[in-house]
Amino acid sequence: MRRGAREAERMRGLARPALRARWCRRLWALPARAAAASPSPPAGASPGSGALNPFDRRLKRKQKNWAALQAEPAKCDYLREEVGGRIADRVFDVARTFPLALDVGSGRGYIAQHLTKETVEKLIQVDIAENALKNAVESEIPTVRVVADEEFLPFKEDTFDLVVSSLSLHWVNDLPKAFKEIHQVLKPDGVFIGAMFGGDTLYELRCSLQLAELEREGGFSPHVSPFTAVADLGHLLARAGFNTLTVDTDEIQVNYPGLFEVMEDLQGMGESNCSWNRKPLLHRETMLAAAAIYQEMYGNGDGSVPATFQIYYMIGWKYHESQAKPAQRGSATVSFGDLAKIEGLLKRGKK
Amino acid sequence: MSGRGVWLRARARLRRFPAALAACGDQAAAYGRCVAAAAAGPAELRRDTCLEEFQALRECFARAVRRIKLGWEGLGGC
User: Which domain of life is it from (chain B) (predicted)?
Assistant: First the structure.
């Protein structure tokens, strides 16, 4: 136990990027680029080209390990538990029993606690942070936990009937590759149900920091990582080979006392910034200015400030002959012009 | 500048910030209004556009932090 505590202290020291003695190069980003950034590759890029590498995965792993070793890991889990519950609802909506399911980027396991043995018979949970898996929440489904990266799933093709992923794909470097891997490990007629943070997430935090840095320092660098847009998400899923796509969006607003509490909770969730181009230092004066701007521009009447989390839920199926296909051209039996007489046509059809 | 002691001390200092900011509500609101007006206006937001408001906020904040620190030390350390 003592060894574990010392390891935890060491990790905490490593996982605080703002205080490392690194190059303190300031990055002056152009407003248009930073504000409208989106991580999806341009349409012409070849699949799996590895052209994008915005995130430091080793740092993300350290941050998640640190977050999982906090004194009260459940304190900052409210968002993940809520989204995990909503994903479980969608799994129940699919009226099937899944013999083998995979949870990609499971963290401490927020989906499994809502699922039953009748829906999912066996579950494999995958995450890059081993401490999160060690402190996982108990669930009635027999579970196997594997430490692996979301982009390099160590499973054979056609293994799983169901793949779920809740709020972990936004830190993946090569999202098309991750979707292809998920598509590959799914059995034909298998389904992928995922949730990701969307474009409007934490826009208040992003704008406050941007304006504060502009006013205090004369330029700014991105502090909130860029999120995928909903149209890009649809294209990525289609390119990975998924059929019958459904993408819907949801907004969760959480109220906090102020900017510092927002940042503290984000750190507790393991959602600290790990982009390669992040600024290693955030000045106290800039933080103070950003807190004042956040309170004034976005504050609620009662003194609290809202933080918006926009979640995209996506459902995609792997092709199987039994799935409904679009009808052949020229096989129509009625014309659209007869829509007014639809009642008569239905009665004729029943006869 | 690396080392666990520095990190723990910086975090302890950071924990005083929300309380100190709550004590400077007026100055913070004035600064926020100035920046919001400048950002919404025709000209770009430039460095030190709202310098006076920020200096007032910073002085109030420094006083509040000192008060909190003395209060905590009076109670037996933080």
Answer: Eukaryota
Which of A215, A263, A298 has the highest number of chain B CBs within 10 A, making it the mutation to test binding with B? A215
- CB burial of residue A268 (10 Å; 0-12, 13-18, 19+): middle
Kindly provide the ipTM of the predicted complex, given to two decimals. Answer: 0.88
Q: What is the dihedral of CA A238, A239, A243, A246, to 10 degrees?
A: -20
Q: Which of B14, B27, B50 sits opposite A260 (nearest CB)?
A: B14
**10 Å Cβ neighbour count for B47?**
12
Answer yes or no: are the C-beta atoms of B73 and B66 closer than 8 Å: no
Say if the Cβ atoms of A218 and B38 lie within 8 Å. Answer: no
Distance from CA of A229 to the nearest CA of B (A): 25
Cβ-contact B53, B24 below 8 angstroms: no
CA distance A141 to A88: 13
pLDDT in tens, B36-53: 999 988 888 888 889 999
Q: Which two tokens stand for residue B43?
A: 């000209």
Q: Check CB contact of B68 with chain A, cutoff 8 Å.
A: no
Contact B2 A21 (CB under 8 A): yes
Q: How far apart are CA A267 and CA B11, in angstroms?
A: 12
Please write the tens of the pLDDT for every residue from A229-258: 888 999 999 999 998 899 999 999 999 999
